[in-house]
Specification:
- Helix content is 40%, strand content 19%.
- By secondary structure, the protein is α/β, with parallel strands linked by helices.
- The protein has a domain of 219 residues: 3-Layer(aba) Sandwich (Rossmann fold).
- The strands form 5 sheets. Strands 5-4-1-6-7-9-13 form a 7-stranded parallel beta sheet, with helices on both faces. Strands 10-12-14 form a 3-stranded mixed beta sheet.
- A hairpin with a 2-residue loop joins strand 2 and strand 3.
- Helix 8 crosses helix 12.
- The longest helix has 22 residues.
- Bound molecules: nicotinamide-adenine-dinucleotide (NAD).
- The site of nicotinamide-adenine-dinucleotide has 26 residues, from helix 1, helix 4, strand 7 and strand 10.
Amino acid sequence: MRVLITGGGGFLGQKLGRALGANGSLRGHAITELVLADVAAPSLSGMPFPVTGVACDVSDEPAIRRLMTAPFDVIFHLAAIVSGQAEADFDLGLRINLFGTLNLLQAARAAGNCPVVVYASSVAAHGGEEPEVIVDGVELNPQTSYGTQKVMGELLLNDMSRRGMVDGRGLRLPTVSIRPGKANAAASSFMSSIFRDTMQGQTANCPVADTYPIYHTAPRTVITNLIHAAGLDGALFGPNRCINLPGRTDTVAEMIAAMTLVAGAEPASRITWTPDPVIQAIVKGWRGHVLAEKGLRLGFAADRSFEDTVRWFLEDDIARPM
Ligand SMILES: NC(=O)c1ccc[n+]([C@@H]2O[C@H](COP(=O)([O-])OP(=O)(O)OC[C@H]3O[C@@H](n4cnc5c(N)ncnc54)[C@H](O)[C@@H]3O)[C@@H](O)[C@H]2O)c1
């Protein structure tokens, strides 16, 4: 079983690679090679099977075709630029998030083995005229360029799966919190920094009111779900291969209270509260309440509490930093 992770040097790509290493197999077959592709060649040490890091820009069509000359059985397509960046630079977002996905799907199709493609979409697919509480099957109405690019990828994934070109599964990821490392250009970056940075003695700003509801999931849960998506029989998804992943809805205040329960009162005292109209404008278009019934029916995991997330962050990312 050959496995490819695009965006393999990123936050989720690295965690997914490590989880695949811990499992050793996927879809009931031993993994014989894992290829991690990113703008700079990523690496992962201590893995039980060969890992190849490749520098490959997904927006470079010949490069991605070369990468996929030898077919992969499972492809996790995680390469993307994040919401804030795609909003600031429309052309860059189109090039990487839309044309990059198109290139990847065309190369996967050309490989001729109908590979499993797990596509990281986003709940940023939702917004605008959709109901406040998102249920399965609502018409998608993204309010950012990032969300729009993700939705275009979803449609293509569905169509190419229908035609038997790839065996696609698209997951709309909730905001993944707590993200380790440094703040990034995602509009949702504060949804990690107000926990990650304050638990490590730094200050962090919350640009929205503490009543703002966040639909979120923990890194451990989302990695479990990416692997689960690859293992399912594609036919179980039905004609729509793209689903909302289960997550939790908590307000910022509820998440801070959970952090306080696990890590004491100090971290919360380091949060500053300067409103940021640019971030507010982006995140107000998102939805905080999602009923992911199809995802639950298909056996995807849900988070039980944000306290768990805080504990897992301390175990996975502070005790054993990436
Ligand atoms: N983390 C979240 O909260 C979240 C939420 C919803 C969806 N997602 C999606 O999940 C995926 C992974 O997210 P992440 O948090 O690990 O992001 P990340 O930014 O940490 O990782 C993305 C990786 O893609 C790489 N990349 C960017 N442009 C590329 C290009 N042209 N060619 C090849 N690689 C390129 C980056 O270098 C980076 O390593 C993304 O598709 C993202 O849109 C993430």
